Amino acid sequence: MSLPTPEHLRAWLVALESGLLERSLAVRAALLAALAGEHVLLLGPPGTAKSELARRLHRAFDGARYFERLLTRFSTPEELFGPLSLKALEDDRYERLVDGFLPTAGIAFLDEVFKANSAILNALLTLLNEREFDNGSGRLRTPLLSVVAASNEGPADEALRAFHDRFLLRVPVTPVGDDHFAALLRLDGAEPRWPLPISPDERTAVSAAAAQVSLGDEAVQALAALRAWLAAQGRSLSDRRWRQWVGLLRVAAATEGRRQIDGLDLWTAPLVAADEPAQAAALAQWFQADWLQAVPQEAPWLTRAVEAFERQLDLEMSARQDAEADDAAGKLALARQIGMGQGDEGDGMLRIVSQQLEQQLRRRYSPVHVAARVAQADELLAQLQAQRAQAAATADALAARLQGRLWWPPALALQVVDAHRHTEAVLAALHARLALVREGFATLPLDESLDEAAPPPVQLEPA
């Protein structure tokens, strides 16, 4: 038995996502959950391709039968589990004819799942959790791989919480945004090109490989950090849910060719630890900002420091010599008066004379002064360069780690790497500005005869 290759699984992700705009996250969650034997809840308004995703998903698994039902408060057990067997009733047995119904399905789609009545929900609890169905006096083992459920909203009744907990992954699904609206209108409904389905032997190989995946120290630290963060929010996950999540992450690692779960696998936290869509955004922020520290930085302290250097340079470049100021200013005024009415030739001469007199007006600085300013600028330049190099190295390292990640949504991978790239770009721009300031200090007018102490450093705010 061999595992499905990453290329094979990636081909299925492409096929499942074909024509389903902005459904990359839902597609990855559904296929990964099915490989791990877990269930998925899609939360969103009607008409957002939730049922289409489930119908496509069953094609990915060889021999998996498909079952679909829209549930209402008037739905009966017969609609899901099959009619009663009349022949069995004649023999005083209460059994159902389950063939073609949910107990014989590999992939099932249950729409408006929280509207079902208690009789159906109680039977579903055992089926989802145990993969077994009570039929008469016996309990049948079912071939169920995964149930994809859908609802417009989460459970309103506290009694539904136990059923809600059976869905390990809860994926918010929203209508297509403005950026892809034109593409939505142009969809032609063409059938995707389906790869070869994943065989039962390959599914068995996935389970065997997942059992060999270890839980790395980084992953333990990340999960512990998340547990503490949830506790601070007054929330928690059940022990069963933590264990199921780790099992899912083992499958993710095994199918990507990894032998260990790491901290990057916690990108799934918003899907597992959020009880409702509104909580998913806060969990995504925790993962990106607190754990990955992948937040674009504007470097406000360094920006203010560079601005302080720029202001100081402007002051020193515009400073005038005290002794010669009056004489040079008088000559400049006279030159301007003479140049008036002289035409283009007079204007050109005025500019030359004005530049010469402006140079005479400029204050001159000692070599000690210039060296001190340049040295302080060099110190900050070195700090900027070090932080810029660190941001670049962090972005490169993160991009390299994500290179082979099959299940990471591409948009998320781009977002977290770009956060560090943005920080690098901000620091590069500040470095370029400060380099110009340093050059300005280095070219201040010099007077080698001046003997003065080094000036006070440019005042910078505390970091």
UniProtKB/TrEMBL annotation:
Q: Which CDD domains match?
A: AAA
InterPro entries found in the cross-reference section: AAA+_ATPase, ClpA/B, MoxR, P-loop_NTPase, RavA-like_AAA_lid, RavA_ATPases
| Coiled-coil stretches | 374-401
Q: Which organism is it from?
A: Ideonella aquatica
- Mind listing the GO molecular function terms for this protein? ATP binding
Name the domain of life: Bacteria
Q: Does the keyword Transmembrane helix apply?
A: no
Does this entry carry the keyword Coiled coil? yes
- Keywords in alphabetical order, please: Coiled coil
For this protein, the parts annotated as crossing the membrane are: none
Lineage of origin: Bacteria, Pseudomonadati, Pseudomonadota, Betaproteobacteria, Burkholderiales
Kindly provide the name given to this protein in its UniProt entry. Answer: AAA family ATPase
Which Pfam families would you find in this protein's record?
Answer: AAA_lid_8, bpMoxR
In this chain the AAA+ ATPase domain maps to 36-172
